[in-house]
Specification:
Layout lengths: L1 E5 L6 E5 L17 E5 L4 H4 L4 E7 L4 H16 L5 E6 L4 H7 L6 E6 L2 E7 L4 H13 L1
Parallel strand pairs: 3-5, 4-5
Antiparallel strand pairs: 1-2, 4-6, 6-7
Length: 139
């Protein structure tokens, strides 16, 4: 399933697939696009296999999860072309939640080429989130 995003460079509305071989680019201006997709138990392996992926294990009834959600969208925009955000609703994806052993939400798991490199439990602000991602990917 494709998500529709607005290109930060030219403001065109563009469909972005949940998985692709490369990073999505705007077909109009060729700028990298923010990549935020919804994942589930069936498509998780496909949507999280390549590159840097930030997995957000969340639930709609969780206030801290709702607090961190806009920060993840902002971060995906800042790191367009180098970071993909995959949102996993734990109520709908119990196998994926179990795979990561997430007992508290939000749980943020940073993957690099399918391998876990860092984990953050609990809501954090955008500056802390940015530092965590940058330092974890630099290792």
């Amino acid at each position: 399933m494709a998500e529709v995003v607005t290109c930060p460079s030219c403001s065109q509305r563009v469909r972005v697939p949940a998985s692709a071989k490369g990073n999505p680019r705007c077909p109009h201006c060729k700028a990298p696009l923010p990549w935020v997709v919804n994942g589930d138990d069936e498509n998780f392996a496909d949507v999280s296999a390549r590159g840097a992926v930030l997995v957000d294990l969340w639930a709609p009834w969780c206030p801290p999860c709702r607090m961190v959600a806009p920060h993840l969208v902002s971060l995906a925009g800042e790191k367009a072309g180098s970071l993909k955000v995959v949102k996993i609703n734990v109520d709908d994806a119990p196998r994926t939640q179990s795979r990561f052993g997430a007992q508290s939400i939000p749980t943020l798991v940073l993957l690099k080429d399918g391998r876990e490199v860092a984990r953050q439990v609990g809501a954090v602000g955008l500056p802390q989130l940015r530092r965590w991602v940058d330092s974890s990917l630099a290792k």
